[in-house]
Specification:
Layout (H helix, E strand, L loop, with lengths): L18 E5 L28 H12 L5 E5 L9 H10 L5 E6 L4 H11 L3 E5 L5 H8 L3 H14 L3 E7 L9 H10 L4 E4 L18 H11 E5 L11 E7 L6 E6 L13 E4 L4 E3 L8 E2 L1 H6 L4 H9 L17 H4 L2
Parallel strand pairs: 1-2, 1-10, 2-3, 3-4, 4-5, 5-6, 6-9
Antiparallel strand pairs: 7-8, 8-9, 10-11, 11-12
Length: about 325
């Protein structure tokens, strides 16, 4: 007799869990300060990474439990050779309602038409600076290719293109206003994200940390910053404002993600993460992981494991409790 799985995705704190972030690789062609620590080579064990078939089976199982929202991440997902196949197959699953991808955009210029055709509707792009030297210092990469990728995404007509900037005191503070102008000119929402301790446990003790409230105060001093409660261009935790600098016509939609300083930040969390090596992670800011690769490779119905991950989802993260990351962000999935 087959086991029965209810279409139930409510965790122990009443949150509806219907969003899965899927890391398809921990490899990346950049090395951002806040994501990949020096010397990390987790990808050396390539046989541990899920195949395209295994990823699609995991997503299919989640749709049969009521998951509807999916975002493919990395590492850098566009460096995986079968990424278009993976995206196409996820989009074709009957339960998939939304499909997005998070990328550094370095390969987006070439792949934008293919991933749009594959079913991707929203693209999140990391953009921490508009100065080529500062960009290289933060990411180790080349800004020109990123800008080409952003333009290609615009031309391709994705429904939503969001820009992400990690707040780094003393590194990219001079870029906050230029980034806002850049986003406003292209009618793209821009999200500012607090630095999280996901490469080293002492991230919060370093002078790099800059809270979102400090940036909100700075922007309020030079322009009009108005909450836009009804504006929600995605499924994440950002709180959005309309911003217009005094004396300027252009306005921007600016979002803030303050995982460490926002009260009740986790109250509406609706996601699980699937790592590239097949672990379900109920919370980005806690160590608990549940193995999904084993059930996928042994032929066991993966739905029981997904339900277990939902049941294990904690109420809050531990970032403020001397959190020491067991794996860096690139290994967990952005």
């Amino acid at each position: 007799m087959k086991a029965q799985f209810p279409v139930s995705r409510t965790d122990g704190f009443g949150r509806t869990i219907d969003y899965l972030r899927i890391s398809v690789t921990d490899r990346c062609n950049e090395r951002c300060l806040y994501c990949m620590p020096e010397g990390y080579k987790g990808w050396a064990q390539r046989e541990d990474h899920l195949s395209a078939d295994e990823i699609v089976r995991a997503v299919d199982a989640s749709t049969r439990l009521g998951f509807r929202k999916f975002r493919v991440t990395g590492g850098e997902p566009l460096i995986r050779r079968d990424i278009v196949e993976i995206l196409t197959r996820i989009w074709k699953l009957p339960g998939t309602q939304t499909l997005g991808i998070s990328t550094n955009a370095t390969r987006l210029a070439a792949l934008a038409p293919l991933i749009r055709q594959a079913g991707v509707r929203s693209v999140n792009i990391s953009l921490d600076s508009l100065d080529p030297e500062r960009y290289r210092r933060i990411t180790g990469g080349d800004l020109a290719g990123v800008l080409d990728g952003i333009e290609a995404a615009r031309q391709e007509g994705f429904e939503v293109i969001k820009l992400n900037c990690v707040l780094l005191r003393g590194l990219n503070e001079e870029d906050f206003l230029p980034l806002i102008h850049f986003a406003a000119e292209r009618e793209m929402p821009l999200r500012f994200i607090e630095l999280m301790p996901l490469t080293s446990g002492d991230a919060l003790n370093k002078p790099l940390f800059l809270p979102v409230q400090e940036l909100i105060h700075r922007l309020s001093a030079i322009g009009d910053l108005d909450p836009t409660e009804d504006y929600r261009p995605g499924h994440g935790p950002a709180k959005y404002y309309g911003f217009r600098a005094r004396g300027e016509r252009a306005s921007a939609k600016v979002g803030f993600i303050g995982a460490l300083t926002t009260q009740h930040f986790c109250a509406t969390c609706n996601k699980l993460r699937l790592t590239a090596d097949g672990k379900l992670r109920p919370c980005l800011g806690r160590h608990g992981e549940i193995d999904l690769r084993g059930p996928l490779r042994s032929g066991v119905d993966p739905r029981a494991t997904i339900l277990q991950a939902i049941a294990n989802k904690p109420e809050t993260h531990e970032f403020l409790e001397a959190y020491e990351p067991g794996r860096p962000m690139t290994a967990i999935g952005g």
